[in-house]
Amino acid sequence: MREYLGGASVEQAFELFSAAAPEGWRVELVEGEIYVVPPANGEHEEIVSELSGQVRDHDKGLGRYTGIGLNVPGASETGHVIPDLVVAPKGSFDDEEEWHGSEAVLLVAEVTSTSTAARDRDKKIRGYARADIPVYLLIDREEGEVLVYSEPSGDDYAKSLKHKLGLTVPLPAPLGFELDTAEF
């Protein structure tokens, strides 16, 4: 592959793939590997929409961002991910940057798809913990579970709680409200 790309570094190849990706596709750099992710299906987007709505109902001062690129530490100097949902105070991303630091992020959420589930369950946990993101919410459609990771510590989270999809799930501080997953 390196020869095909003219000896480009992973970062340079990432930039090339990002520039060439079709509209609506996401290109991510996770743990030194490039992933090209197709647009989500309707069920996936309904879950993200419901989650976003419940966050807004809880605190109107929080922004709910889809399509925001975050820099997260990884196997390469930096990783670039586009979570399904990022929750941060409104105005946290009011610049022209494509990739942002995670300092203001309170929660990232991923909704699994067949093409992303393994990465969402493993590599992204490490990146989000390293980025010191307080809460990682993983809605695992394939397993019928909601996992809440909190208290980032190095490459992992000190706490992880598993709930059946369809139940009420307590979200820890800094959010501190109950998420109703019955609509998921």
Key descriptive features of the protein:
single chain, 184 residues, alpha+beta, six-stranded mixed β-sheet, three-stranded mixed β-sheet, 4 helices, 22% helix
Could you characterize what this model shows?
The protein has four helices and 13 strands. It is of the alpha+beta class. Strand 12 and strand 13 (177-180) form a beta hairpin.
Q: Summarize the biggest pleated sheet.
A: 6 strands, mixed
| Unreliable segments of 5+ consecutive residues | none
Strand neighbour order, sheet with most strands: 3-6-8-9-10-11
- State the end-to-end distance: 40 Å
List the helices and strands and how they pair.
Elements lengths: L9 H11 L5 E5 L2 E5 L4 H17 L3 E4 L3 E4 L6 E3 L3 E5 L9 E2 L6 E5 L5 H5 L1 H8 L4 E6 L4 E9 L2 E9 L3 E4 L5 E4 L4
Short description:
With 184 residues, the chain is α+β, with helices and mostly antiparallel strands. It has helices spanning 10-20, 42-58, 117-121, 123-130; strands spanning 26-30, 33-37, 62-65, 69-72, 79-81, 85-89, 99-100, 107-111, 135-140, 145-153, 156-164, 168-171, 177-180.
